[in-house]
């Protein structure tokens, strides 16, 4: 992915997808804890695989946020008001 110019407002919106209640980090945690309590080895492996995939989504969203903020200097606090 390539970002043409900084966009801290969009980066701010993506923070919810990154670490919000319905974001990638929360999803990974939910699948991981479900996997820990699962007794069936096949389902346990599946849940752990899904948790790992959610963590890769977290990495992607985080990288996009960093790209959108690169060079923004001082604009981060204003969020989507711009």
From TrEMBL:
Binds 1 Ca(2+) ion per subunit. Binds 2 manganese ions per subunit. Signal peptide: none annotated. Keywords: Calcium, Manganese, Metal-binding. One of its GO terms (molecular function) is metal ion binding. Mn(2+) binds at residues 24, 54, 57. InterPro entries: Ferritin-like, Ferritin-like_SF, Mn_catalase. Ca(2+) binds at residues 45, 49. Its cofactor is Ca(2+); Mn(2+). Belongs to the manganese catalase family. This is Mn-containing catalase.
